[in-house]
From TrEMBL:
Pfam families: CbiJ
Signal peptide: none
GO MF, one annotated term: precorrin-6A reductase activity
Naturally occurring in which organism (per UniProt): Xenorhabdus bovienii str. kraussei Quebec
Keywords: Cobalamin biosynthesis, Oxidoreductase
Pathway(s) where this gene product acts: Cofactor biosynthesis; adenosylcobalamin biosynthesis
Enzyme class: oxidoreductase
GO biological process, one term: cobalamin biosynthetic process
Protein's UniProt name: Cobalt-precorrin-6A reductase
Amino acid sequence: MKQPQIHIFGGTSDARQICMMMDSAGIDYRLSVATATGAQQAADIRGDIVIGRMEAEGMVDYLQKQKTQRVIDASHPYAERLSQNIAQACQKLDIPLIRYIRQSDIDDVEHALIHKVATLDQACEVAARLGERILLTTGSKQLADYVSCLAGKTVLARVLPTAEVLALCESCGLSVDQIFALKGPFSADFNRAFYQFCQADVVITKESGEQGGFKEKVEPCLALGLPCIVICRPVHQFNGEGITQANGLEEMAQLLANFSAIAN
């Protein structure tokens, strides 16, 4: 493989699908993931994998040293700071940036049991009014904030089954009865049985789109009569010189087709 001139940021399922598109097209690239778990989940791609978080200045140095000619930001929809750092680094180096936007299902879901909020604090405020046993399907990154905001409630956390995440759960004071270490994706039937098993009164989730199993999380709540609190995505502005937005995998595939010949 020759020296990759394209760098992808993202440990999401979308990012892995984009990598596989590039593999099929014979395009060389590197993929950045934050953790060893992200690298493990991307083990089947052909591109090089770089592990570790980068701040804005570190990105500038790295991209410059690698002589990167194009960047794809396929990071998590809620990784607002990371996306801002990527955009700043690309603009500083005058590197073209493609920002991949995961398609949203939020407008398809309207129901009295669905509570759409903008922040973690708002989610906790609503959840505290609606029940005692509150199930988080939001990952582990902000677990400590949830536990703090939901003091006095029974917080149930569905998280990835890694030693690092389990240690975080324990450090937040969660008992073995509150930790559910599982890796998705999960079907709607599985989620329905799971919600019943853990006796949740309220479910908190994120607007994670098709790749994040959003509908599979929400539909069982409606079937069971459970309130579901959805933290909506932050509104990103991706305008500026050299920034192209790709809405969904189909648009991303079209963009890849347009520059694959140049990249090779």
